[in-house]
Amino acid sequence: YIEQVGKERGEEIEPHHDPIHDQSWYLDVELQNRLYKEYGVLGYTIVQCMGDAVFIPAGAPHQVKNLHSCIKVAEDFVSPEHLNHCFSLTQEFRLLSDTHTNHEDKLQVKNIMYHAVKDALAVLNNAEPEED
């Protein structure tokens, strides 16, 4: 959708760039309404006040509009149960240009896999045999 809007506005769509990973677009009310009309995607507005924490589920597209000066603190969590999705994202990141900030493997998929297997083997090695 974002690339389509960019083409309509005469913008050049560069290879090895991604409008989502680049965080180069902000959908204003007009674009949000069009997204709902054409694709059935409805956005929600959440106003965060001082002291509030906002949880955004993994994979949920979102955008932030700061109304005042603020400090953002984000914590990402990747679990071994979702390595297939993490691997897909890593492949997407690899297609970005070499100078892109998300080009490297930020999710550390190999490390997650290594530690998951190591922990599973430790559990199996420490398990007491069942008695008949």
TrEMBL record:
Keywords, in A-Z order: Metal-binding, Nucleus
GO cellular component, one term: histone deacetylase complex
Annotated localization: Nucleus
Any GO BP: regulation of transcription by RNA polymerase II
Chief place of localization: nucleus
One Pfam family per UniProt: JmjC
Residue intervals of the JmjC domain: 1-94
A GO term, aspect molecular function: histone H3K9 demethylase activity
Name assigned to this protein: JmjC domain-containing protein
Organism classification: Eukaryota, Metazoa, Spiralia, Lophotrochozoa, Mollusca
